Structure formats: structure tokens, C-alpha cells
Amino acid sequence: NAGVTQTPKFQVLKTGQSMTLQCAQDMNHEYMSWYRQDPGMGLRLIHYSVGAGITDQGEVPNGYNVSRSTTEDFPLRLLSAAPSQTSVYFCASSPSWRTSGTYQETQYFGPGTRLLVL
Amino acid sequence: RKEVEQDPGPFNVPEGATVAFNCTYSNSASQSFFWYRQDCRKEPKLLMSVYSSGNEDGRFTAQLNRASQYISLLIRDSKLSDSATYLCVVNKGTSYGKLTFGQGTILTVHP
Hints:
The structure holds 2 protein chains of 2 kinds. Chain A is mainly β.
């Protein structure tokens, strides 16, 4: 299994440009999440999905859109990039409690995308 | 008050030392607790879950105090390879799969 994959690894954007960060997992996990990580701060949840067709906002959703058309893929779209969106973005997946048999929801992370917005 | 608070460190310890990290959380409805490890410029990886009765995995011991809303991680006989950032992670209580991360505690183990 490849686990959770993310593309691209690095990206430089100009203010106002749009782009999509790709995330895919091959573990058949129902839950997928997007986080951003900034220096001195913990990972912050951007958007969240509990299954295909179902998404929800996290703590910092403004400026980002998501969709979940398949179990495997969970792309994150930046609509109009701003310098404040310069960050490292991590995608994560986890099995549901029904699948895992536990409420201990272990998340598996992708390698991250480093984004710089000029 | 932050939902999850950790001492950011850094902790600099010699090989073989015992080191303890603490974490407090504010949401009394939280049901699951974890320690993740993050190496420099890498993704976080689960180190261990934290159970109410406390649990041990080799040199690592995790404790949970629900009354005080406090979690700890003890590392015995530190190795150079333990150098990393340790993230305290708590679920949001009402929603399975929604996790809150502390800012992390940096550990450097030196020879």
C-alpha cells in the first residue's frame, strides 16, 4: 500500500492564483482531513470528510474548498491564494470507528505539501 | 485558553536520560488521546494512544488524568533517535475523527 499520497511536494503561487492540492489514500479509509501547520502552532484542521459526498468545515476553512467524490481522493482547492496561506499542508486519513472497532481514531498522514504564496 | 497546551521546550537531554512531557486540554468531553511524533520536515506519525489506566510501550509510558485534564509522556533511556517534536493530540469529543493538536514539544537527545 502507498498509504496517503500528496502532490505536489512544493508549490510557489502568486497572490490571487488558484490551485488544487491533491490527496489520495489506498487504505479504504472513510475519514479524511486536511490540516495546515504553521511555525509555533499546532496542526489546524481546515476541512474534514466522513465519507464520499460528505464534507465539513474545520477550524480554519476560509479560502479553501473541498469535495469528496470518491473514497480515495480528497482534493483541497485554494480559490484565490493569499500570503497568509503560506504553510505546510498535510492530508490525513483514518478508518471509521465501525471499521477499526475502536474510538481511538488513529490518523495516517501524507508527506505534506509546502506552499509559498508571494 | 488553547484547546491543547504543551510546553514547547526545547528539551535538551543526554543519551540515557529520562524525560517527561506534559500536556493539558480544555475540552472535558474529549474521549481519545494520543502522542504523535514528528521528525523535522516530515509528517506526524502516531507514537501511542493514551488510555485511562495508563499504558506503556517499551521505553515510552503515557498517563492520562481526566480529572485534571492532563496527559503525560515519559521517555526512559533516551536515544539519539528520539530527537523529534512530540505532539499531544486530543479528539474534540463530539465528533469522531476531529482531532486537536498541541503545538508540540521539541526534544533533542545529545551524545
